[in-house]
Amino acid sequence: MFWRLQVACVFIGAVIGAGFASGQEIWQFFGRYGDTRAVYAAGILFSLAGPAVLFVCCRRSLSHYQDLLADLFGPWWGRLMDGVITLSLGAGLIVMLAGSGALVWQQWGWPVWSGVCLTGGLLLVALWQGFNGLVWVNTVLVPVKALTCLGVATAVLHLGPVEVAGAGKAADWATGSFTLLPASPLLAAFLYVSFNLALALVVLVALAAKVKVKGGFTGAAAGGLVLGAAIYLLGKAMARYAPGLIAYPVPMLHLAGILHPGIGQLYAALLWLAMFTTALGTAFGVAWRVSGRDAGRQFRVTLTLTLLGVSPFALLPFATLVAFLYPLFGYAGVPLLVAVLFAAGRELLVRSRPS
User: Fold this and answer.
1) Cα–Cα–Cα angle for 300, 336, 150, nearest 5°?
2) Cys staple from 275: which of 18, 169, 202, 269, with CB 3.0 to 4.6 Å?
């Protein structure tokens, strides 16, 4: 049971990050459409995609995500998808760091670079020992951040209306009308899951060897359903106060502060944890890939250079990064999501046939 909880936490932790818990992702991919069907579709896709990756890796004895890509797409296309995923992880890391900067700026008035540097330094410390640090940090922090996100969203929905004004310095961070998202809410949900699967793929494949021994498919499925429920609650809470709320770079933080200043401070701290745990997965994935699966000195050097290399890009506006980078890599990740679900379905058919 505990191992299943760990699998669920790692999966959720790879998705609930800066964009999710801040509300930016949820508004960009779901809130702007006002279509609940897209939320349901995303929850179902998450609950299928996570176990599908683990199942395919276990059935085919794959222990690294590059092996999975080669198996799904062949050598040439597998290398191309590997490059896309590496870029997606880099983009995800940039957004997590940018979210940290936006958080400290909106909540405490600190310079953006201070949040970026603080988070980058702590990532270096947490990942110095590689994958074990990633698993245990997620196991401890993910339940806390998920329950807090859901708690604030539920409180906003059940308390009386509050006044939200999209003015002042927050307006400088407004995303405007620019977006790469499609007109279809269901396609937007599909893009959202495909991008997040690309971010979580490295971690999920790394878990597969242990899942084969200990089980954990139900943990991944449960994690996907929790993600769907969280999308629903956060989206509904923000829709109640749109469009004024959307002028803020961290909409859910603003709502939490309106409920009570103390709740705002608590949510700010736990929102940073959300950014941090997701940044753990993306930073690990990039460093693990570039270092050639080396778990020692080469991994640490690569991790350090990666964090130094992406930090300047994290100084760009957080909301703009979410609106541009996430849909872009969502389109690029569609083949991965389709291929994983198809391969899992084929393995189930083979397994069910009498020998």
Assistant:
1) 75
2) 18
Could you state, in order of their start, the residue ranges of all structural domains in the chain?
A: 2-352
**3-class DSSP state of 241:** coil
CA–CA separation, 321 vs 291, rounded Å?
Answer: 26
CATH architecture entry for 2-352 = Up-down Bundle (1.20)
Q: What DSSP element (H or E) covers 18?
A: helix 18-22
* Peptide bond before residue 143 is cis, with ω within 30 degrees of 0: no
Say how many residues make up the chain.
Answer: 355
**pTM, 2 dp:** 0.79
Structure tokens at 102: 């936006």
How confident is the model over 264-302, as pLDDT tens digits? 888 888 778 777 877 877 888 788 777 766 667 788 888
Q: Which amino acid is at 125?
A: V
Model confidence pLDDT, tens digit, residues 233-268: 888 888 877 777 777 777 888 888 888 888 888 888
Phi, psi of 16 (to 5 degrees): -80, 90
**Rounded Cα distance, 223 and 314, in Å:** 28
User: Do residues 287 and 280 lie in contact, with contact meaning Cβ atoms separated by under 8 Å?
Assistant: no
Q: Which CA distances in Å does 298 have to 128, 220, 279, 293, 354?
A: 11, 31, 20, 9, 47
Side-chain half-sphere CA neighbours of 135 within 13 A: 15
**Which contacts (CB < 8 Å, 24+ apart) does range 299-304 have?**
299/130, 300/128, 303/123, 303/124, 303/127, 303/128, 304/124
Cα 142 to Cα 293: distance, rounded to the nearest angstrom:
26
* Inter-residue contact 228 to 50 (CB < 8 Å): no
